[in-house]
Amino acid sequence: MTGFRLWVDSDRDGDLRDERAHSLQQVGYEWHVVVSAVGTTAAGPQTPIAFRVRLSERGVTADYQTIRTGHVRIDGVDIRFGVTGVWGYYGLAANHIVFDRDGNNLLGTRTDSTEATAIWQRVVELRGHTYRIDVPIDGSRLTLTPTDDHVIATPKIGGPMPPLTTRSLDSRTVSLARDDRKYVLLDFWSVTCAPCVRALPRIAELAATRDVEVIGVTFGEPDVELDRFVREHGITWTIVVEDIGHGLLHSTFRPSAMPMYILANRDGVIVYVGPDLEQVERQIEH
């Protein structure tokens, strides 16, 4: 199939006759195009935003991830960048800035792209220089300020647990940085994941008998069904609910499967990353 074109009512006047045609590019078994339109965002009504439209056998869908693009000039070289957002909201900790580091004029917007930097990391290295990054909620500008701070790498075994702060299901502040020398166990799980649910009794035993702070991280929206599930399964440890693609913890740790466990020891060093709860149990002292 070739020759697909798409018209978008970008000015929201109900008339497609004044709109230009967008040509779609084939990506696997789908056809994609990035289009601009006017919407209500953090910057207010009538704000230009860009988003990806997909055409497949299932129909036409639009990504909720939006992006604002621009250029920065470093050492006389223009570097293209994009700031990802969610329906036009930018500057959130879990959003990303993508820099065209290889100069191919393409922006790898996947969160695991080597060109992507999570906004929570706050620092980026470009052409041998280190900058502190700042993006307002409306994504209207990117500010790069020279700094001596170090770039925070994606968490891995042997590295520190990042000092992130988020909110729990019951609206408490949750911090991964602790001064009580407890183990910290992140459990990425879902109510629809059978192995995750089967592991809950063992997680409960860890939380009750070991010196460990358990933080269960699931995705979706807090609702009555999730509250009921938590009560019925006797979950007494902290639960965090966030968007699987843009939530702070999902975006930072990038779990590739569920369950996925991230364990930090008493010194705040990550000692295990993986799906094996038995390995977690071995790492935690009685």
Describe this protein's structure.
With 286 residues, the protein is mainly beta. The protein contains five helices and 19 strands. It has helices at residues 194-198, 200-209, 224-232, 248-253, 277-283; strands at 5-7, 21-23, 25-27, 30-41, 44-56, 59-74, 77-86, 96-99, 116-118, 123-126, 129-134, 143-146, 165-167, 173-175, 183-188, 212-219, 238-242, 260-264, 270-274. The strands form five sheets. A seven-stranded antiparallel beta sheet has the order 3-4-5-6-7-8-9, with no helix packed on it. Helix 3 (224-232) links the parallel strand 16 (212-219) and strand 17 (238-242). The model has no long low-confidence stretch (mean pLDDT 82).
Note the main attributes of this structure:
286 residues, mainly beta, 7-stranded antiparallel β-sheet
Please describe the topology of this protein.
Layout: E1 5-7, E2 21-23, E3 25-27, E4 30-41, E5 44-56, E6 59-74, E7 77-86, E8 96-99, E9 116-118, E10 123-126, E11 129-134, E12 143-146, E13 165-167, E14 173-175, E15 183-188, H1 194-198, H2 200-209, E16 212-219, H3 224-232, E17 238-242, H4 248-253, E18 260-264, E19 270-274, H5 277-283
Parallel strand pairs: 15-16, 16-17
Antiparallel strand pairs: 1-2, 3-4, 4-5, 5-6, 6-7, 7-8, 8-9, 10-11, 11-12, 13-14, 15-18, 18-19
Point out poorly predicted stretches.
none
Helix content: 10-25%
Tell me the number of strands. Answer: 19
Beta-sheet strand percentage?
Answer: 35-45%
Distance from N terminus to C terminus (CA atoms, Å) equals 62 Å
**How many strands, which pairing sense, and closed or not: the largest β-sheet?**
7 strands, antiparallel
Instruction: Please state how the strands of the largest beta sheet are arranged side by side.
Output: 3-4-5-6-7-8-9
What structural category do the secondary elements indicate?
A: mainly beta
Computed over alpha carbons, the radius of gyration is: 22 Å
- Tell me the number of helical segments per DSSP (H or I, 4 or more residues long): 5
pLDDT average, as an integer? 82
Helix and strand element order: EEEEEEEEEEEEEEEHHEHEHEEH
Morphology call: globular
